[in-house]
Design a protein that fits this description.
Blueprint: E1 9-22, E2 35-43, E3 46-50, E4 54-57, E5 61-69, E6 76-83, E7 92-100, E8 111-115, E9 128-136, E10 150-159, E11 170-178, E12 183-187, E13 198-206, E14 208-214, E15 220-236, E16 245-253, E17 262-267, E18 273-274, E19 280-281, E20 301-313, H1 320-327, H2 339-346, H3 350-363, H4 367-380, H5 394-406, H6 408-425, H7 442-461, H8 469-485, H9 492-511, H10 525-541, H11 547-550, H12 560-566, H13 569-582, E21 598-607, E22 619-627, E23 630-634, E24 643-646, E25 652-655, E26 666-670, E27 675-679, H14 683-697, E28 706-707, E29 712-713, E30 716-717, E31 731-732, H15 736-739, H16 746-759, H17 761-774, E32 782-784, E33 787-789, H18 792-823, H19 836-844
Antiparallel strand pairs: 1-5, 1-20, 2-3, 2-4, 2-6, 6-7, 8-20, 9-10, 9-17, 10-13, 11-12, 11-15, 14-15, 15-16, 18-19, 21-22, 21-27, 22-23, 23-24, 25-26, 26-27, 28-31, 29-30, 32-33
């Protein structure tokens, strides 16, 4: 395994749900004591997402969820709480919740209340610095060598420094402190517009320095001091006589080690200052009393749900046994003895198991038969057709994930026009009398809501021919299975499908359009309420195909008028026709989609391409729109495109080195005649655009094999210094295996399955023991609440295979972790001094080589 370490990759995923905040401090000035509150999610200090603003409250409820693939290393996940100020240009930060990367695993997808802490500007530190210290002997006057009396400190480079007000013009100061309290400070030159400055400056100091201090008699006494500490501080140059801003510091203790040269990377740390007692504290020197971090909840609390996974993904051959065992589940009889069914029983959260399972089976073309097998078993155990898939079982969660993967474009094509209209018009639709101040407005609001529901309803029922064939095949199997076990119920052929397509597909997408990439706009409180009412109505309309449900009244009395407006025979027939079409045995849609489907859109900054010979090549903000046909950009949303780039004309999509324009999060779209340089809003947005564009263009016949990672400026390529602008690239394009995370990644999903088994090993052992106690190889059916084991011997056989495979994978992981710990040098760029994650990794190298758990011999 050590020979293949270079093929191992670490994949990180973060899902965070911001629930609510409580007991925020009120304003002490202005016309109101309430606040307009919103939150931002940041990796270190880079903002990734922002919630909707909750107005006039000290206890805001957000209920928003964000999830993304982590595109880079980070130290803290931070959630900032802001008070929007309409009068001042800059909103006020109320506090933050910051969680260390290595602590994220302590909150496994469960709600936790976190105290909101003050934000100290001097503790907002990120980045790392490369420092080299050498000690040299010099020849004295009598031609003899001294002992280490000269020290040279070289500041080589820094990376990932903090932006201050969108800029970073860094320089470094080097302060040497001697034991006689004397200090000498020197500084580097300022590097403009970069968060990754290359300094390469050397400063020389004597290792001993004479100084003076007061004696008891009041006279100055000369003292000899030895170097004891070096402090390298990074600053942002404000210029114009304004005080420079602190970016972070590194303190290296040299007392007793003044003969050892070293070259190491260090994490930048918050500023330290000295109190009156001479004790060093990690706080800001300018921090006023009472604002330092404390253990109370005086600033309020924030409820969060955090789910972080870091998967160590190995080459495919490592996962062959686990993959084969899972895929065999399709043919295992009975299904209760299959690995998929057992996995669904032992994992607490069914969605955690469903997501990787669906992706694995979809990659191998087996998703339809495995869902059919699981659904057939589940429906066969029911006696009431109205309870089909009502619980959060494994098969229902697998259906949710399969629809989201296979039907995302279909969802966009169907709902996006209607959703765009709602966002554009922003008509009030509140019909709850307890929420409306003016009762006379209810009738108009009802008319607005009814019109929006009509538009959405018609878009759905007219979209049947565009439903993906995979979804149609799954729906066909569900309909056949339900009618087989409940032949007397004439409505079950519709209700078994409507429960998924309406309740679990369209309604959630309307309620949370951001989660389904239908919009990237900030949704205000009124629009969010409108989407809630539309979603409720669409969900209830899906039940109209059931005669029993059609006779029921809505739980909320005020919704009854909307419900009755669509509870007509015409609408019911339209629904049944829609459900019949999408559950046909084959999809009537042709493989080609003539109408372009919008996949992604948003504001980014582009560099002018200089179409005219002497045209200005400056940076401008544009609204980009990516469809299944082309990439366009316009001045603002809704305006005619200024440029249209067919996907067939894109030769490569790659990230751009920061040194090209001194700008972060840039990428390039390479075409035949020119290259388009674009800056995304943050690292997550950059990754999303690059991955999606690469995925769409990877099949182009003229796709490049090599590209230039830096720009062509001042008559040459910055990466290779070639002067010919049309010269072929100097670097290979990114490998599809490592770059295309938007496509299916079976190795990563198999690694996720392995992690779930290890996490729930106690439940798997308990499952085995209980089955042993209830039926031991006698052929009897083992039945207990929540478990149905039809064939005990075959079930035990599968459990043993699962445990054997898991133990072998654990050995591979353990060997790999030990190898990495041995080969990684503490103080390298990959493991800077101050990196707690590396210390955890190093500790693992001392673990016993025995596997933490073994299967029970059956």
């Amino acid at each position: 395994m050590a020979d293949e370490n270079h093929k191992v990759r670490i994949e990180e995923h973060l899902k965070i749900k911001i629930g609510e905040a409580k007991n925020l401090q009120s304003r002490n000035h202005g016309s109101t004591l309430q606040r307009d509150v919103y939150c931002t999610v940041s990796l270190d200090q880079e903002e990734i997402f922002r919630t909707t603003t909750m107005e006039k409250t000290l206890n805001p409820f957000f209920g928003e969820e964000f999830q993304f693939e982590v595109p880079r290393r980070f130290r803290y996940l931070s959630i900032y709480v802001y008070d929007r100020d309409r009068h001042l240009k800059q909103d006020k930060v109320l506090g933050k919740v910051a969680i260390k990367r290595e602590d994220l695993g302590r909150y496994p997808n469960k709600d936790h209340w976190f105290p909101i802490r003050p934000v100290d500007a001097d503790s907002e530190v990120q980045g790392k610095a490369n420092v080299e210290i050498k000690f040299d002997s010099v020849i004295s006057k009598n031609n003899t060598f001294g002992a280490n009396n000269r020290m040279s400190i070289k500041i080589l480079e820094c990376v990932d420094l903090t932006l201050k007000n969108g800029n970073c013009d860094p320089y470094a100061t080097v302060t040497v402190t001697y034991s006689n309290v004397k200090k000498i400070t020197k500084r580097t030159k300022v590097k403009k517009k970069t968060t990754c400055p290359q300094f390469d400056e050397v400063f020389t100091f004597d290792t001993s320095e004479s100084g003076s201090r007061s004696s008891d008699c009041g006279y100055g006494v000369n003292t000899e001091g030895e170097v004891c500490e070096v402090c390298i501080a990074l600053w942002h140059d404000m210029g114009m006589g304004v005080e420079d801003l602190f970016l972070g510091e590194v303190r290296i203790q040299l007392r007793g080690n003044a003969s050892h040269s070293n070259n190491a990377w260090y994490y930048l740390q918050p500023r330290r200052c000295q109190d009156r007692a001479g004790v060093m504290k990690t706080v800001s020197c300018s921090t006023p009393p009472g604002t330092r971090l404390s253990g109370d909840n005086s600033l309020g609390s924030l409820r969060l749900q955090v789910y972080y996974t870091a998967d160590c993904v190995f080459p495919s051959v490592v996962y062959y046994p686990l993959r084969n065992l899972l895929l065999e589940s399709v043919n295992v009889q009975p299904i209760t003895s299959s690995a998929v069914y057992i996995l669904g029983e032992i994992v607490t959260s069914k969605m955690e198991a469903a997501q990787p399972l669906v992706r694995i089976f979809m990659h191998h073309g087996q998703i339809v038969p495995i869902i059919r097998a699981l659904a057939n078993f589940e429906i066969s155990k029911l006696t009431d057709p109205t309870t089909i898939f009502r619980g959060n079982t494994l098969v229902s969660k697998m259906m949710d994930e399969a629809m989201k993967l296979a039907g995302l474009r279909y969802l966009h094509k169907t709902l996006r026009p209607a959703m765009d209209l709602v966002f554009l018009e922003r008509k009030p639709c509140e019909i709850d009398p307890t929420r409306v101040r003016d009762s006379n407005a209810i009738e108009q609001n009802l008319a607005n809501l009814t019109e929006y529901v009509r538009i959405v309803f018609e878009a759905i029922v007219q979209s049947a021919v565009h439903c993906p064939s995979l979804m149609c095949q799954i729906f066909h199997n569900l309909k056949e299975c339900a009618t087989k076990y409940f032949p007397e119920n004439k409505e079950v052929r519709y209700s078994v499908i409507s429960g998924f397509i309406f309740l679990r597909f369209f309604a959630p997408a309307i309620l949370g359009p951001k989660l389904f990439d239908i919009t990237n706009e900030q949704i205000d409180h009124q629009t969010n309420r409108t989407l809630t009412l539309i979603s409720k109505t669409i969900q209830s309309l899906g039940n109209l195909v059931s005669a029993r449900c059609a006779q029921q009244t809505c739980k909320e009395g005020y919704m009854e008028r909307v419900h009755k407006a669509f509870a007509t025979e015409t609408h019911i027939q339209a629904l049944r026709q829609f459900l019949e079409i999408i559950s046909a045995s084959s999809n009537p849609e042709s493989s080609a989609i003539d109408t372009p489907v919008v996949l992604k859109e948003g504001v980014m900054i582009k560099r002018a391409q200089g179409r005219k010979r002497f045209g200005r090549k400056n940076f401008k903000q544009r609204y980009f729109r990516l469809t299944t046909h082309d990439l366009t950009y316009s001045k603002t949303k809704g305006k005619d495109p200024l440029c249209v780039i067919p996907l067939a004309d894109i030769l490569a999509v790659e990230r751009l080195n920061e040194n090209s324009f001194k700008m972060k999060n840039m990428f390039q779209i390479v075409q035949n005649e020119r290259t388009l340089y674009i800056q995304a809003g943050n690292c997550v947005e950059q990754k999303g655009w690059v991955d999606l564009l690469t995925k769409l263009c990877q099949s182009n016949d003229n796709r490049l094999q090599r590209y230039h990672p830096s720009a062509y400026l001042n008559g040459h390529w910055l990466c290779c210094n070639i002067t010919n602008e049309l010269a072929s690239g100097c670097s290979l394009v990114s490998s599809n295996e490592t770059n295309l995370h938007t496509s299916l990644d079976p190795n990563r999903d198999l690694e996720r399955i392995y992690s779930l088994i290890v996490t729930h090993k106690e439940r798997l052992n308990a499952f085995t023991i209980r089955c042993e106690n209830q039926a031991v190889y006698n052929g009897e059916i083992c039945i207990r609440p929540g478990y149905y084991i039809d064939d005990v011997p075959s079930c035990f056989k599968t459990i043993k295979q699962l445990k054997d495979i898991t133990c072998n994978l654990q050995e591979i992981h353990s060997t790999y972790q030990k190898t990495v710990a041995r080969e990684t040098k503490y103080g390298s760029k990959q493991a800077p001094i101050g990196d707690d994650n590396y210390l955890h990794l190093a500790a693992r190298s001392n673990l016993d080589t025995t596997i933490p758990w073994r299967y029970i011999d059956t």
